[in-house]
arginine deiminase
Amino acid sequence: MSGFGSQDMSAPLQRVLMRRPGPSLMQADPARWHYGPTFDGAKAVYQYRAFAQLIEQSGTEIIWLDDEGDGLADAMFTHDPSLMSDHGAIILRMGKPLRADEPALHERAYAARQIPILGRIDAPGTVEGGDCVWLDARTLIVGRGVRTNQEGIDQLGALLAPHGVAVLGFDLPLWQGEEACLHLMSVISPLADDLALVFAPLLPAAFYQLLKARGIRLIEAPADEFHASNGLSLNVLPTRPGEVIMVEGFPATKAAMEAAGCTVSTFAADALCIACEGGPTCLTRPVLRRAA
Ligand SMILES: NC(=O)NCCC[C@H](N)C(=O)O
């Protein structure tokens, strides 16, 4: 079996690209990076260890990038600078200027492991991985917003069309403004082929209707926990269908997923995820998702 490939959001996670936070995060100026009041670099590094252990316990192989002080504090959110397809990786172009140097880190990691590059998003296009959701293996949904523009969506479409994939763009709301992070994956977490956790009030309406037309069961994220967590209560990572990892402290959201048949693991992440605006899905770039 090849060591890469993923056109699915919840099939068993077998290989993932992750970056341990270190000096770049510890020295980050929270105002410059738009980190919230619970930001504490040393605590975030500590909290990340428990998250990495959960990934290891799931049996997933981790390809590690290391933070050796390049100043790229957000680079621990490996979900965003590249996208994986069954035909190779797509090197993206970031909408957040401070993250511009991150895609090159991913490209080097893929090259070192002989993982092919299917293509790149070029200027003026921008696409961030957090805006991309595989609805099925032939349909990629992309949120058009502050981080991802129409030029980027068109380029993604041109790269994937020869492989039988349709790329459909849907407008995201502005919500908390241009500086804040709102990706499509901030308002939906697929948990299995036919199950997703959503915050419907911020979902693109036509995407909501498409999910329903596809017969996908939607768990509504409790609004109080969504707002209290700055949306991070909803950012939930499946390591296999129905087996998920979330940030601790949101019991109603957890119970809603359990009631739908999910097994939920949690880790403490006030300094890591809530403060830095990215959860378990954002901390992982799936490289291989497939039933063994
Ligand atoms: N996929 C995601 O939602 N990633 C979260 C990225 C958070 C990071 N602080 C950012 O603003 O890009």
The mean pLDDT is 96. The domain at 13-289 is CATH 3.75.10.10 (L-arginine/glycine Amidinotransferase; Chain A).
